[in-house]
């Protein structure tokens, strides 16, 4: 069962009988403290949080109004009831002006007095809860602001200001652990001199902040250094600070930093409730800080990856460019040798033929790399001109027929009988068709290939259908990914870099079109759509 925390009441009166009577009257329900002088009362009010203070207005040589003033300065929400033996209108007006809730005459009508105390206590608790909720709500907003922040260091000062404002605190800081030095470093501060915040680096466990972080325990430090010393050992009190709250920021017990809030003036101080509220807030605050950090790390890593990716694309582009020039020169010389029959023997001609085939293959691979780097670097040039889709398909099929002259596969063309003219880049679209046709030939052992053109209202769909090995379902999501090749026997025995389809996708998307494939029971159908 939850422990019931009794409210604290302070009775200030110089008459011992009144103190005794009221103590007896209240002690069952409340924790009662008494003070015979204003001085004694002041010390208690400064060190403890009372729900209710009952004060006599005219004590020997002293004034109850000083008590009311102090209570309302230190803890405005505390209820004050004034009593006096010399009932005067002036006293009553003064007491209420200073903030006392009500005024009673001696001798007290205890029944009425008790009823009044009860109803004020209820009001006090209600107000306190309301106040607590609205403060938590405000702090929640601060927490959300951290969560939404792009660069946490930039928004932390504003958030700290907001928190200080809520508690009417004078100075404060957010200290976070520096990953490299593992020291607490000021990330945001308010009211601290520049020098103080630059030199503030605290090792784990050292000083008050380090202690709070290490022990993951919030601290409420008051003007009584002896009390603090009991917790902190050789704690050095800072004279200018009258009261401070030091709350660790941690996630699942892992220390992240510390939130420090200070009050400098004598009349203000933090209380247990403030500590509770800041401690509740510190959990979401810590989470928000961590989230913001992770987010920033992700953004930074992403930038780094993008940079590396660009470097890689540039490298591929430069290397393939450099490789292609000598390869094309070699091919030119070979072509000339073969064409002009400058070869002495038939055997050398055969060997040169093999060289030419291999050279062609290499030029093809290097060209693919170059094309790929163009797409990656957004340097693919598409020049749309009025062109005939039917003519382009025929050209591609013819070229394919020459290349795969020895193939036993049948090629069927299901295309319109008349030209189908609209704007596209004929060279690039032929390149895509050649790639799809050569894939179908590479991955089909028997059966045939069919090229289809479907003329739709505002688009044209091109398809290349084969009766080949098909694409296993688990590999389908990666088919258009660069350098991806299906891992099977047929692919292992065919040449390729796994770039053809990603280049085709780049070309079609640069046209504003779409490319996709279906792999039914047997074979594969690759299709792409171009808008007219
Ligand atoms: P490459 O053919 O150079 O390996 P592609 O990007 O053109 O690269 O194709 C990627 C992979 O997709 C190929 O390695 C192959 O495994 C698979 N593939 C492409 N077209 C077909 C097809 N028509 N039938 C079966 N598999 C195919």
Strand content: 15-25%
The CATH architecture of the largest domain is: 2-Layer Sandwich
Distance from N terminus to C terminus (CA atoms, Å) equals: 76 Å
Under CATH, the topology of the largest domain is which? Beta-Lactamase
Q: Using the CA coordinates, give the radius of gyration.
A: 42 Å
- The CATH class of the largest domain is Alpha Beta
Strand order of the largest sheet: 10-9-8-13-12-11
Q: What percentage of residues falls in helices of 4 or more residues? A: 40-55%
Based on Cα principal axes, name the global outline.
rod-shaped
Task: Profile the largest sheet.
Answer: 6 strands, antiparallel
How many helical stretches? 15
Which blocks of ≥5 consecutive residues have pLDDT under 50?
none
Number of domains: 4
Q: Which structural class do you get from the secondary structure elements?
A: alpha/beta
Query: What small molecules does this complex bind?
Result: adenosine-5'-diphosphate
What's the number of extended β-strand segments? 20
Instruction: Spell out the CATH superfamily of the largest domain.
Output: GAF domain
Q: Give the mean pLDDT.
A: 85
Brief descriptors of the model:
20 strands, binds adenosine-5'-diphosphate, Helix Hairpins, five-stranded parallel sheet, 15 helices, Beta-Lactamase, Rossmann fold, six-stranded antiparallel sheet, 532 residues, 4 domains
How would the blueprint of this fold be written?
Blueprint: E1 8-12, H1 16-26, E2 31-35, H2 38-47, E3 52-56, E4 58-59, E5 62-63, H3 64-74, E6 79-84, H4 89-98, E7 102-105, H5 110-148, H6 152-167, E8 171-177, E9 183-190, H7 194-199, E10 201-203, H8 207-215, E11 219-221, H9 225-232, E12 243-251, E13 254-263, H10 272-339, H11 346-376, E14 385-388, H12 389-403, E15 410-414, E16 421-424, H13 426-442, E17 448-455, E18 459-466, H14 489-492, H15 500-510, E19 514-518, E20 524-531
Helix pairs in contact: 2-3, 5-6, 5-10, 10-11, 11-15, 12-13, 13-15
The structure holds adenosine-5'-diphosphate (ADP).
């Amino acid at each position: 069962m939850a422990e019931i925390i009794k409210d604290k009441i302070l009775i200030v009166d110089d008459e011992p009988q009144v103190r005794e009577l009221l103590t007896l009257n209240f002690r069952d329900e409340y924790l009662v403290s008494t003070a015979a002088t204003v001085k004694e009362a002041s010390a208690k009010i400064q060190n403890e949080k009372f729900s209710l203070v009952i004060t006599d207005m005219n004590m020997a040589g002293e004034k109850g109004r000083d008590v009311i003033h102090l209570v309302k300065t230190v803890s405005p929400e505390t209820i004050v009831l004034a009593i006096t033996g010399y009932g005067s209108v002036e006293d009553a007006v003064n007491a209420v002006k200073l903030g006392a809730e009500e005024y009673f005459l001696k001798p007290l009508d205890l029944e009425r007095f008790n009823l009044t105390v009860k109803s004020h206590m209820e009001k006090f608790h209600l107000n306190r809860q309301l106040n607590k909720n609205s403060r938590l709500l405000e702090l929640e907003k601060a927490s959300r602001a951290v969560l939404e922040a792009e660069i946490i260091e930039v928004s932390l000062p504003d958030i700290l200001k907001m928190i200080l404002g809520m508690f009417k605190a004078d100075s404060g800081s957010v200290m976070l652990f520096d990953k490299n030095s593992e020291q607490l470093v000021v990330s945001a501060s308010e009211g601290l001199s520049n020098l103080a915040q630059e030199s503030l680096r605290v090792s784990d466990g050292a000083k008050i902040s380090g202690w709070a972080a290490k022990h993951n325990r919030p601290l409420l430090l008051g003007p009584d250094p002896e009390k603090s010393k009991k917790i902190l050992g050789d704690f050095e009190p800072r004279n200018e600070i009258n009261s401070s709250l030091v709350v660790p920021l941690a996630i699942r017990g892992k220390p992240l930093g510390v939130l420090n809030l200070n009050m400098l003036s004598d009349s203000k101080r933090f209380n247990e409730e403030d500590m509770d509220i800041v401690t509740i807030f510190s959990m979401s605050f810590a989470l928000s800080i961590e989230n913001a950090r992770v987010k920033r790390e992700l953004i930074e890593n992403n930038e780094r990856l993008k940079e590396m990716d660009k470097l890689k694309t540039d490298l591929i582009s430069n290397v393939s460019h450099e490789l292609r020039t000598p390869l094309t020169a070699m091919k030119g010389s070979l072509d000339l040798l073969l064409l002009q029959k400058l070869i002495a023997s038939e055997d050398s001609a055969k060997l040169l033929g093999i060289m030419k085939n291999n050279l062609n293959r290499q030029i093809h691979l290097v060209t693919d790399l170059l094309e790929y780097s163009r797409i990656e670097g957004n340097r693919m040039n598409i020049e749309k001109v009025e062109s005939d889709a039917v003519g382009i398909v025929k050209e591609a099929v013819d070229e394919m027929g020459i290349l795969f002259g020895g193939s036993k596969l049948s090629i069927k063309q299901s295309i319109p009988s008349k030209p189908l003219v609209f704007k596209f880049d004929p060279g690039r679209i032929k390149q895509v068709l050649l790639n799809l046709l050569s894939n179908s030939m590479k991955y089909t052992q028997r059966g045939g290939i069919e090229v289809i053109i479907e003329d739709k209202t505002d688009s044209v769909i091109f398809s290349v259908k084969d009766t080949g090995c098909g694409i296993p379902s688990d590999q389908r999501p990666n088919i258009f990914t660069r350098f991806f090749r299906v891992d099977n026997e047929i692919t292992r025995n065919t040449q390729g870099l796994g770039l053809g389809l990603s280049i085709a996708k780049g070309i079609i998307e640069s046209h504003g079109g779409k490319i996709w494939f279906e792999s039914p029971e047997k074979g594969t159908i690759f299709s792409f759509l171009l808008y007219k």
